[in-house]
Amino acid sequence: MQSDLPEVRPSLPMEWVRSQFPALSASGVLLDNAGGSAPLDTVCERTAEYMRRWPVQLGASYRESALAGEKLAAARREVATLLDMSGDRRVAPDQIVIGASTSSLIGRLARSIAPTLREGDQIVVTDVDHEANITPWRRLEDRGVEVITWHLDMDSGRLETDDLRRILSERTRLVCFTHASNIMGEALPVREITDMVHDCGGRVCVDGVAYAPHRGLAVHDWDVDFYAFSLYKVYGPHCAVLFCKAAGMEALTNLNHQFMDGETGPGKLELGAFPYELLYSAAAVPAYLRQLSDRVNGRSGPGGPARAYDAMAAHELTLSSLLLSFLDSKSRVRVIGPSRPGPHRFPTVSFVVRGRRSSEIPPICDAHGIGIRWGHFYAPRLVERLGLTDVDGVVRVSMVHYNTEEEVDRLIRVLEPVL
Ligand SMILES: Cc1ncc(COP(=O)(O)O)c(C=O)c1O
Asked: What's the pLDDT tens digit per position in 384-417?
């Protein structure tokens, strides 16, 4: 999101922030947030509230059913605000599809787009993405669609837009890429990429899962066609959201029951009943961001959550600086992704240690109540391209705004004698 950074960076009210997440009161340290963040207390409460009060099917004339429908419509409106928190332009509630996970939503999107593709059409995928945004598109090769890989540049350690430019053609229908790698933790210039793709007549499908926990989304500014993220990594419940630009939604084929072939909105992809209680509880996430913003700046108003994200960004920069400078001091450590902190570098820090398998490190932290992780994180193509498959992938420490400097210090004290 483009928000004007105030001259003095706002700071987070950490005591209040942590009090909003009951799971953080345990003695352990959660540094596996890119796997899944702690849910807000309000999310837990609203899940239970919905299940207790409206255990009914929607669409009937009796009072509870009608009320449940109203509650969910309000929740959908609220969740849609997450897609553009700049305050000026709202995302219409019928532009978001709710599903169990980003993997399932992108899978449905691909099945829904498939009938509109012809033999020889091209789809671009990366070798950096989580498989959620690769496998569904690669499967379309069976239909004669050509799938081309936009490769990681081994010199820069990034996906380079110049490489994409060379791949694009008048046959490109779709470019599928991640907004931020869940291993390398760096944001890509989405608007620049989207403009390039649109110029040649294609559309984009962006995986925002590793971006959304850290920065405000701005689908209008980015001009993206499809954008998906998982609420369970953004302090919410286990469900996910897919944004479809109006023209993109229109072009989708209905996957729902045949009698619903006239469907024009999210009903094309929301098959049968979906997790109502989770949509209801997800509405607590934008509410939290507004409250946080009020506390950061002492006032609210249009664009308020942008200030909460500014404070998060400043805090996350402190956390990643601490960890990265420690890792930099270790000659056997190689950081995967940018080794220096920066505004586009999130506190998702992956590394490998010369002479050790990545699988050896997290169990050492387990013994100290610190949760980190190793592996390919469902991005096995990236790990293979980096030549790290044989060392069990990478060690990943993933932090979010509720983590503290003290927690990072604890981790550093445990890792100090090991690395
Ligand atoms: C970058 C990225 N994309 C997609 C996914 C898949 O999300 P889901 O579990 O909601 O399918 C993940 C999950 O770890 C991820 O990190």
From this structure: 999 999 999 999 999 999 999 999 999 999 999 9
Distance between CA 201 and CA 198 in Å, rounded?
A: 5
Residue 3 — very low, low, confident or very high, per pLDDT cuts 50/70/90? very low
408 alpha-carbon distance from chain centroid: 23
Residue 377: half-sphere exposure toward Cβ, Cα within 13 Å: 31
- Residue whose Cα lies nearest atom 9 of ligand 1: it is 101
Pull the structure tokens for residue 90: 């709202």
DSSP states of 288-342 as a string? HHHHHHHHHHS---TTHHHHHHHHHHHHHHHHHHHHHHHHHT-TTEEEES-SS--
Cα dihedral angle (248, 254, 260, 261), rounded to 10 degrees? 90
| Domains of the chain as residue ranges with CATH | 14-38+303-415 (3.90.1150.10), 45-286 (3.40.640.10)
**Are 134 and 125 in contact, with CB atoms under 8 Å apart?**
yes
Give 266: exposed, middle or buried? Use CB within 10 Å, 0-12, 13-18, 19+: buried
- What does the pLDDT read at residue 307? 80
Q: How far apart are CA 294 and CA 185, in angstroms?
A: 28
Task: Give whole-number Cα distances, 302 to 155, 223, 234, 338, in Å.
Answer: 42, 21, 21, 34
**What pLDDT is stored for residue 304 in this prediction?**
64
Cα of 98 from ligand 1 centre, angstroms:
15
The pLDDT-based confidence of 299 (bands split at 50, 70, 90) is: low
227, 230, 383, 400: residue to mutate for ligand 1 pocket, most atoms within 8 A of CB: 230
Q: How far is CA 264 from the centre of its chain?
A: 26
C-alpha 207 – ligand 1 centre gap (Å)? 8
